[in-house]
Amino acid sequence: MIRCEDVLREVSNYIDTEVTEDLRHQIEEHLRGCHNCTVLVSTTRKTVSLLSSSRILELPSDVSQRLMQRLAVHWS
Ligand SMILES: [Zn+2]
Predict the structure, then answer these.
(1) Is the CB of residue 15 less than 8 Å from the CB of residue 57?
(2) 56 alpha carbon to ligand 1 midpoint, in Å?
(3) Could you name the CATH architecture of 4-75?
(4) CA distance 41 to 16
(5) Tens of pLDDT, residues 22-49
(6) Would you place residue 59 in the very low, low, confident or very high pLDDT band (cuts 50, 70, 90)?
(7) 58: which DSSP letter?
């Protein structure tokens, strides 16, 4: 069983479908029961699709760090 921390760590890989089949299933299972992570995935997916329209595939690290910090507040 994976935890929110694991989803947080893997979210960009998950969106890029760069996770193993097994991990993807575990994340999807987690998302069914966790509203915070569902929001995290949809927010990150929107951000990534915005950025990919300008062909930038990775968030600048300071931006993603700030995003993660903001989202982490929901879990504390
Ligand atoms: Zn979660």
Answers:
(1) no
(2) 27
(3) Orthogonal Bundle (1.10)
(4) 11
(5) 999 999 999 999 999 999 999 998 887 7
(6) low
(7) S
70 alpha-carbon distance from chain centroid:
13
CB atoms under 10 Å from CB of 18, counted, come to 11
Alpha-carbon gap, residue 51 to 73, rounded angstroms: 24
CA 27 to ligand 1 centroid distance, Å: 9
Give 72 Cα–ligand 1 centroid separation in angstroms: 11
pTM given for the model: 0.66
In the block, residue with structure tokens 């990775």:
58
* Unique residue bearing structure tokens 């949809």: 42
- pLDDT at residue 14 in the model: 94
